[in-house]
Amino acid sequence: MNPEHVRQLIELIDQSPFLAQLKIKTTALGRGYARGEVDIERCHLNAFGGVHGGMYAAMMDHFSYWALYSELAPDMGAITLDLHTDYLRSCNEGRLVAEGNLIKAGRQIALCEVKITDEAGRMMAHGTSKMMCSPTLQPVSAVIETLRPGFVLPDKFLPADEI
Fold this sequence. Notes:
With 163 residues, the chain is of the alpha+beta class. It has four helices and six strands, in the order ααββαββββα. The protein has helices at 3-13, 17-22, 53-69, 140-147; strands at residues 25-30, 33-39, 77-87, 95-105, 109-117, 123-134. A hairpin with a 3-residue loop joins β4 and β5. The chain is globular, with a radius of gyration of 16 Å. The mean pLDDT is 96.
């Protein structure tokens, strides 16, 4: 992938109103991989004082999509068909780190997993996401149209002679 495309894309997707509200930051995108983090604040906690399960699920859904992104053709997108989550541990402070990995990308269906750990590397949650790939379902052009109309990202992939 083109490093300038990745840099500008991370800047763009972190402007999503939902991610900005939750303060989730994307820190890396690569071939079949996405990584990000969030510093736990009071707004992330449930009524019992632990991280809300929806916070874990939001991170899993987000980083699954972006782990798949590198394998999608430039005009393709994807939507989540199924998100399976296993909540393994609760916390109420510190930083959560999410790492998404592509397991398999078929022509129409893809499978990714996301592991969420705390600062000590303890597994907090694990999830898998099954996604449907299509040119009409959430392509990156829709991100641009929503967040920065008229913006043009650099080419997704470097020309073969620049690799």
